[in-house]
Automatic annotation (TrEMBL):
UniProt protein name: Ribosome hibernation promoting factor
One GO MF term attached to the UniProt entry: ribosomal small subunit binding
Source organism superkingdom: Bacteria
Listed InterPro entries: HPF/YfiA_ribosome-assoc (IPR050574), HPF_long/plastid (IPR034694), RHF-like (IPR036567), RHF/RaiA (IPR003489), Ribosom_S30AE_C (IPR032528), Ribosom_S30AE_C_sf (IPR038416)
GO cellular component entries: cytosolic small ribosomal subunit
This protein's encoding gene: raiA
Quaternary structure, from the entry: Interacts with 100S ribosomes.
Localization terms from the record: Cytoplasm
Domain Sigma 54 modulation/S30EA ribosomal protein C-terminal: 133-188
Length: 194
């Protein structure tokens, strides 16, 4: 069962809003196999012009679902974000499960009896066949990870004119990534061993 952590910014999350979010996003549960600790992190923000932004992140064992939507109507935005998340599931379900089966890993997404119907709906919505939507890696690079701190990594990233930079954290000795956010500020992703 999906648990919900719902937070509002410039907005009080009423029972009606909470129930609507839980009802709509909770329907995604049918796509999952055994995920007893799934938590949907939902952020709802209201702006001065009464527009709302909804962000949903659902971290699972081998995949993280994330979607963001801005809309003038909160409830319509929740509907749109649910559709986005469903499209993500449909898009990755076949690929992730196929690769996991090849490696002997249990599928994250459940097989549904209406998969053919879902696939047909997705192909119609996307206007593409799965074959046209294949991921093609056209370039590969190798480089050594240099020990540095996050600030030095940001400087190096800016010197190269990139949006992200991978480095070995001098303090933790783990692999980390700095990246430039849409608002012009920077983010840091730190990796951990499982």
């Amino acid at each position: 069962m999906i648990r919900f952590e719902i937070h509002g910014e410039n907005l009080t999350i009423t029972d009606a809003i909470r129930n609507y979010i839980e009802e709509k996003i909770g329907k995604l549960e049918r796509y999952f196999n055994n995920v007893p600790n799934a938590t949907a992190h939902v952020k709802v923000k209201t702006y001065h012009n009464s527009a709302t932004k909804i962000e949903v992140t659902i971290p699972l064992k081998n995949v993280t679902l994330r979607a963001e939507e801005r809309h003038d109507d909160l409830y319509a935005g929740i509907d749109l974000i649910t559709s986005k998340l469903e499209r993500q599931v449909r898009k990755y379900k076949t690929r992730v499960n196929r690769k996991n089966r090849d490696h002997g890993i249990q599928d994250v997404f459940a097989a549904l009896p209406d998969d053919q119907e879902i696939k047909a709906t997705y192909n119609t919505e996307a206007g593409k066949d799965d074959d046209e939507d294949e991921i093609e890696i056209i370039r590969s690079k190798q480089f050594s990870l240099k020990p540095m701190d996050a600030e030095e990594a940001v400087l190096q990233m800016n010197l190269l004119g990139h949006d992200f930079f991978v480095f070995r954290d001098r303090d933790t000795e783990g692999t980390s990534i700095v990246y430039k956010r849409k608002n012009g500020k920077y983010g840091l992703i730190e990796t951990t061993e499982e």
